[in-house]
Inverse folding.
């Protein structure tokens, strides 16, 4: 997986970097950050951001169902009209499952949450107007030790939450555009 980091992002719209990983959860781990629109880690993207943590413990902790466990996070702002859609969380989870399948990432025991957040500014924040955000937190147990497909699927999820289509060879994407908050 470090080879993946050395190769860089597979999508031109994202920047993937290695970040400090948790040291007490597993004997071995690697953490990555992704930001949409090429913004370097350290400044969250206005379009989307995410984290990917791969952990390895040969003792196979209870609940991991194997020596590997992947924990991910992805979030992006939405237009408020999309945020109130009752199916947006269901669609988000299906994007994860579809991205893992599209990249051939073999896994078991997936779990997670898709959360939509609707907000309205008041007082000093009233100029912000209405806003919405979509967040995906997920984990799964890879069934082999090549995690490249898992990282690529996660990178696609971060981009898809930001409104970009799944990665596809030979397809040129237009520059991403987000509407300003009311």
């Amino acid at each position: 997986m470090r080879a993946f980091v050395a190769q860089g992002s597979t999508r031109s719209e994202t920047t993937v970097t290695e970040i400090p990983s948790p040291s007490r959860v597993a004997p071995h781990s690697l953490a990555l950050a992704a930001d949409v629109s090429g913004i370097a880690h350290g400044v969250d993207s206005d379009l989307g951001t995410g984290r990917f943590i791969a952990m390895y413990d040969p003792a196979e902790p209870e609940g991991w169902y194997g020596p590997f466990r992947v924990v991910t996070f992805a979030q992006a702002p939405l237009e408020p009209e999309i945020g109130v859609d009752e199916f947006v969380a269901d669609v988000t989870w299906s994007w994860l499952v579809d991205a893992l399948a599209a990249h051939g990432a073999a896994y078991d025991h997936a779990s997670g949450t898709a959360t939509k957040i609707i907000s309205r500014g008041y007082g000093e924040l009233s100029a912000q107007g209405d806003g919405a955000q979509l967040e995906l937190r997920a984990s799964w147990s890879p069934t082999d030790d090549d995690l490249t497909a898992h990282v690529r699927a996660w990178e696609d999820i971060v981009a898809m939450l930001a409104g970009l289509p799944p990665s596809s060879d030979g397809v040129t994407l237009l520059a991403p555009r987000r509407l300003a908050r009311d």
The mean pLDDT is 84. The two ends are 41 Å apart (CA to CA). The chain has one domain: 2-161. The longest helix spans residues 88-102.
